[in-house]
Prior knowledge:
17% helix, 18% strand
Amino acid sequence: MPDQSLPEARTPAAPAAPAAPEPADAPGRGVSRRALLGTAGATGLVLGAAGGAVGYTAAPAQATPLTSVGSGRAMFHGKHQPGITEGLQARGHLVAFDLTPGAGRREAAALLRRWSGTAERLMAGETTGHDDTGVARDAGPSSLTVTFGFGHSFFGRTGLEKQRPGALDPLPDFSGDRLDKRRSDGDLWVQIGADDALVAFHALRAIQKDAGNAARVRWQMNGFNRTPGATAHPMTARNLMGQVDGTRNPKPSDADFDRRIFVPPSGEPAWMANGSYAVVRRIRMLLDDWEKLSRPDQEAVIGRRKADGAPLSGGGETTPMDLEKADAKGEYVVPLNAHARITRPDRNGGAAMLRRPFSYHDGIDADGTPDAGLLFVCWQADPLRGFVPVQRKLDRGDALSTYIRHEASGLFAVPGGAADGEYVGQRLLEE
């Protein structure tokens, strides 16, 4: 779990101008969820291309009231797909599909067209437009995002091997991996996030139904984060180990952010322009063992104070870590195998990735051990320069590795955003 880490909590944007409710009988659109909300649905917070950086601004004096959580809205169309630069969402679903036998490029194109249309409607706070379950009838958009990607095997199944990016080559084996192949990889990958659990589930169910006979679910995972408005002011998230987790995440305001996270417009292959690569890992936290450690021992493993995320070398959460500082005995204040020391970009050739994960808890095993941890999702322009070198270094001596276990893995090519009138992946599937 590299310390480059989670996006900060979102800072509320200023309310947009009230939008007129869509008529309930609008042809082909269904009943608008926003129209059912009254004033709450009419004060949508637009988080489009410019708003994507909202999660990285300075914290305001007051948090978003919970009563306005449902009004947040992300935009489907844009330069990049939604669900990458937006701040953390309270509820998430990750799901991978395999194309069914006999389904090829034509069926995949029709599926991505259906999925894109459904995602656009739901992200606008509308119904699916066909056989809607009504699960989210009383909710606004709730910052719903739906993101689509292609796995390595997708290109062979659709006859598009020549369009498969070199960056999508399988990840190397790591010594700490205990991977379940049944919960790894997949032809297609969908990430769903929202600030309301019912809105997120509604989108998951709609995407599953839209798959029809073209694709079947390979694996599916559920995650969560702190709900916006649950703290006195927006704060960096905590993981299930209780650690502040996300201090050093790259920010869209960084001069080299786009270069590190997104494929350039001139990049190869051309259909991946403005896209990114997502590494997905299910990382189980061995919480019973972790919680036996004293607070100082936990802090030594991470290299940061548990209370506020500040480096052990002193200062506040965002104070640069002094790796050379020693105590009275001459020992490094930040241990040599501390997680935060090992994952620093300046100690990994500048390797950087944008982390946007979810915590998960899938019950308690028969022996009383919690099946809980992190659904790790990180974004980068090239995983061979982002995720791989950092994970290799962690594999060789990270103090945290004793308390975690990588149980599933996937790598997906996520194309750029769809322009108005396009569906996601159109430039690949209709070349």
